[in-house]
Design goal:
The complex is a heterodimer of chains A (340) and B (254). Chain A has 16 helices and two strands. Chain A has 340 residues and is mainly α. Chain A has one domain: ABC transporter involved in vitamin B12 uptake, BtuC, CATH 1.10.3470. The radius of gyration of chain A is 20 Å and the shape is globular. In chain B, 50% of the residues are buried. In chain B, α6 runs parallel beside α7. The longest helix of chain B has 21 residues. Chain B is α/β, with parallel strands linked by helices and 254 residues long. Chain B folds into two domains: 164 residues, Rossmann fold (3-Layer(aba) Sandwich); 81 residues, no CATH class. Chain B is globular. At the A-B interface, α7, α8, α9, α10 and α16 of A face α2, α3, α4 and α5 of B. The structure holds adenosine-5'-triphosphate and magnesium ion (MG). Magnesium ion (MG) binds next to α1 of chain B. The site of magnesium ion has 3 residues of chain B, from α1. Chain A: InterPro entries: ABC_transp_permease (IPR001851), LivM-like (IPR043428).
């Protein structure tokens, strides 16, 4: 029953996401909203990638802003300066970002908890400084412009491109989490000593999750570059790392919908109130964050799931879904055991 | 036949010698019990065998293979799994997912197999499901399969921890106080589970304080005091050993 409700909900949101640009495209103001939503979805891809390493594997990376910026620049340089085909540059960018992620993960994932967060934050600061100073790479203060192929010049086209890739990333993440590899990652987050004792090579699992996560955030970088059509060194800033983190925390870690709701919703709100509230937005942002972390430690989507389960227990049948995690896998066969 | 051999094993914490030149064998297919007063070094011994700590001296050999100082995950893959004195589980995950994780070291499919749904991934998921069902039945946890491990009764958690250790088909399981923290009237299922482990051909090594249970279960007892072996032999002999009575038992109740 719950399964169908969930699929129905996803289809409804998908239909709305497909229909939205058609409505917005009618007015001049609406066109701006398309761009905002597109960037919101780019951040959603970034938040989903962080979800893999933070939400499921439990390692708080504060370098995802840097990796997104590296992806954006890598793409811009490959496409604009080297002249590689747009759609060929996309996978190359992801692979390059993943490779750098792998190399950064090798030393940094040896550290634990807050030390890992600090290590990755330092990496991010270094990357930002490097991009500011290596003007041959980043274009310095003038930045790096991107001239899109003409078929991408329309906002709604870019919107659908990013929507398509967002869905793809969600599906990939779902497949990972529901496969046998998923529980290994979650085991590292849940109890690292026990995971080691049952034969899980925790360092290897972290490195795999981190590399995969960087692969995906490289994709977010590509579409960031595509939508902005201009990059400055700030694209690699650690501020982006914190944004991604906050989108994920507010939306809900270790869920699939959470990062998307958090990123698109908050990015839209932030842009919406940019004129009227200025920097006061961030104050409100902070308050929302505190509120969510105290009252909904699993984020908005996690909170809704809890409410839903509570309501079902109260008014529904006796079947109570037992976990708040996305992982329900491998097969129905196992579930059958408990019902008889 | 000897499954595990401990030779001259020593572990120090600063000035404290937690285990001191320990020698003993665990015969295959038996239940060996480790007894001794609090702080005798029993848990430390498991930590050193299981790879959670490196010994300072000595050798650990499993089936004639030197595994001294191996890391915990490699020791587990080689065939020694363990439970912890304070029950360790993946608490927020359902019981059956705990078991899936326990079996993970026996499957090889990675995240790309998951993404592309490769034949290997399909096959290994089938295999895992099968093994999870077997282990749920073996440990009698079917009713709790869907419940988060942290929410099931203490006694069932203990059995689940044993199940997580067993599901990967180890040669040897190390059980650190499998009935610790469980009410006296509730230990029967755990005791019969340990007997079932031996009957299924898996060697067990159990740390326990409940002497009556040990006398009934164990084929072989090793007694420790201040990290030193003070007795080693069949239950009756160890129970009547004057050194053991003085250091630990007070009197032999069996
Ligand atoms: N990580 C550690 N660092 C320092 N000292 C330790 C450590 N682990 C154990 N010890 C010390 O080593 C000695 C043996 O401890 P251990 O936990 O092995 O005892 P035990 O026989 O399991 O006792 P119990 O029956 O209470 O579980 C104790 O004195 C303990 O304080
Ligand atoms: Mg102990």
């Amino acid at each position: 029953m719950k399964k169908y409700a969930k699929i129905g909900l996803y289809l409804l949101v998908l239909a709305a996401a497909i229909a939205l640009p058609l409505l917005l495209n009618m007015s001049r103001k609406g066109k701006n909203h398309i761009s905002i939503l597109t960037l919101g979805m780019v951040w959603a891809i970034a938040a989903l990638s962080l979800n893999l390493i933070l939400g499921y594997t439990g390692q708080a990376s504060l370098a995802h802003g840097a990796f997104m910026g590296i992806g954006a620049y890598c793409f811009a340089i490959l496409f604009e300066r080297v002249g590689i085909n747009f759609w060929l540059a996309v996978p190359i960018t992801c692979l390059v970002t993943a490779l750098i992620g792998f190399l950064v993960g090798l030393p940094s994932l040896r550290t634990k908890g807050p030390y890992f967060a600090i290590f990755t934050l330092c990496f991010n600061v270094i990357v930002l400084v490097v991009f500011f100073n290596w003007t041959w790479l980043s274009g310095g203060v003038q930045g790096q412009a991107i001239t899109l192929p003409s078929y991408l010049s329309q906002r709604w086209v870019r919107y659908y491109v990013v929507l398509f890739f967002l869905i793809l990333v969600m599906l990939i993440e779902r497949q990972i989490v529901k496969s046998l590899a998923g529980p290994s990652l979650i085991a590292v987050r849940s109890n690292e000593n026990l995971a080691e004792a049952v034969g899980i090579r925790t360092f290897r699992e972290k490195l795999i999750a981190f590399t995969a996560s960087c692969f995906l955030v490289g994709l977010a970088g590509v579409f960031f570059a595509m939508e902005q059509q201009h990059l400055s060194p700030e694209a690699t800033s650690y501020l982006a790392s914190f944004y991604i983190l906050i989108y994920l925390l507010i939306g809900g870690v270790a869920t699939l919908g959470g990062p998307v709701v958090g990123a698109v919703g908050l990015y839209w709100l932030l842009s919406r109130f940019e004129k009227s509230l200025g920097d006061f937005r961030y104050l409100i942002f902070g308050l929302i964050l505190i509120f969510v972390i105290i009252y909904f430690p699993m984020g908005v989507v996690g909170g809704i799931k809890k409410l839903w389960e509570w309501a079902k227990e109260r008014w529904g049948g006796k079947e109570v879904p037992s976990d708040t995690l996305a992982y329900r896998g491998p097969d129905e066969e196992v579930r059958g055991v408990s019902s008889d | 036949m000897t499954l595990l051999r401990i030779e001259g094993l020593t572990k120090r914490f600063g000035g404290l010698v937690a285990i001191n030149k320990l020698d003993f064998d665990i015969p295959a297919g038996t239940i060996t019990a480790i007894i001794g007063p609090n702080g005798a070094g029993k848990t430390t011994l498991f930590n050193v065998i299981g790879g959670a700590m490196r010994p300072d001296e000595g050798r650990v050999t499993l089936d004639d293979k030197d595994i001294t100082g191996w890391r915990a995950h490699n020791v587990a893959r080689e065939g020694i799994s363990r439970t912890f004195q304070t029950t360790a589980l993946f608490e927020e995950l359902p019981t059956w997912v705990n078991l899936v994780i326990g079996y993970r070291m026996r499957t090889r499919s990675g995240i790309l197999d998951g993404v592309f749904h490769t034949p290997r991934s399909v096959r290994e998921r089938k295999d895992t499901s099968q093994r999870v069902l077997e282990t749920l039945a073996f440990t009698g946890l079917g009713d709790y399969a869907d419940k988060p491990a942290g929410s099931i009764p203490q006694e069932a958690q203990k059995r689940l921890a044993i199940g997580v250790a067993l599901i990967g088909r180890p040669k040897l399981v190390l059980l650190d106080e499998p009935t610790g923290g469980v009410g006296l009237g509730e230990t029967d299922e755990i005791i019969s589970l340990i007997e079932k482990i031996r009957d299924s051909g898996v060697t067990a090594c159990v740390i326990e304080h409940k002497m009556r249970m040990i006398m009934h279960l164990a084929d072989h007892i090793v007694a420790l005091n201040f990290g030193v072996k003070i007795a080693d032999g069949n239950p009756q002999a160890v129970c009547e050993n004057p050194g053991v009575i003085e250091a630990y038992l007070g009197e032999c109740i069996a």
